[in-house]
Amino acid sequence: DTEVTQTPKHLVMGMTNKKSLKCEQHMGHRAMYWYKQKAKKPPELMFVYSYEKLSINESVPSRFSPECPNSSLLNLHLHALQPEDSALYLCASSQVLERGTGELFFGEGSRLTVL
Amino acid sequence: KNQVEQSPQSLIILEGKNCTLQCNYTVSPFSNLRWYKQDTGRGPVSLTIMTFSENTKSNGRYTATLDADTKQSSLHITASQLSDSASYICVVRGGYNFNKFYFGSGTKLNVKP
Prior knowledge:
- The structure holds two protein chains of two kinds.
- Helix content of chain A is about 0%, strand content about 55%.
- In chain A, strand 4 (about 30-35) and strand 5 (about 45-50) form a beta hairpin.
- In chain A, strands 2, 4, 5, 6, 9, 10 and 11 form a seven-stranded mixed β-sheet that branches. A four-stranded antiparallel β-sheet of chain A has the order 1-3-8-7, with no helix packed on it.
- Chain A starts with a strand and ends with a strand.
- In chain A, about 35% of the residues are buried.
- By secondary structure, chain A is an all-beta fold.
- By secondary structure, chain B is an all-beta fold.
- Chain B is built from no helices and eleven strands.
- Chain B has strands at about 5, 10-15, 20-25, 30-40, 45-50, 55-60, 60-65, 70-75, 85-95, 100-105, 105-110.
- The model of chain B has no long low-confidence stretch (mean pLDDT about 90).
- The chains are: A mainly beta, B mainly beta.
- The interface of A and B includes residues 41 and 44 of A.
């Protein structure tokens, strides 16, 4: 079983809805990530938090808003999404480079469908 | 430009046969390379990690190799099983932002009975 927990597993929302994806890890990792994955494609990086501060934003549209309330939690707030935003959203965590070999531990993902 | 390329894109083999997946990268500086297995609709799971000084590493029926000089890695699967059907993704950590991982496009393996 993965040690990164994502909720919900499935989410269906309309283009005017506001929803959030949640991610939690208790491995003491200080780097957390959001990836977006379309069918038959590799994960694409969206955001990276390092020591609870946003360190990378891969030019993601503002309708996606990340939040890292503490070292164990990572949220992705969704608002006014488009149907093309439908995808599998993966959360991951890792040690920061200087403290380990930097394995990415992935959650099972949240399958998002935008109608 | 930091890139990771995998081949083949897809592969079909019969149960019990062996196969080898390839990964070439241009990421610099290099930190480590991992092979991940991803079942459809699930999160990727790490199979093995290769650091700069390692040439070969095994994990059960999976054996990974790394040639840091040519920047090539391979994943060899022995005596394939139906449960090996999945996407295999090569992920390289490196570059000048230490929290960035570079993903290959994956190899889709289909093991048939």
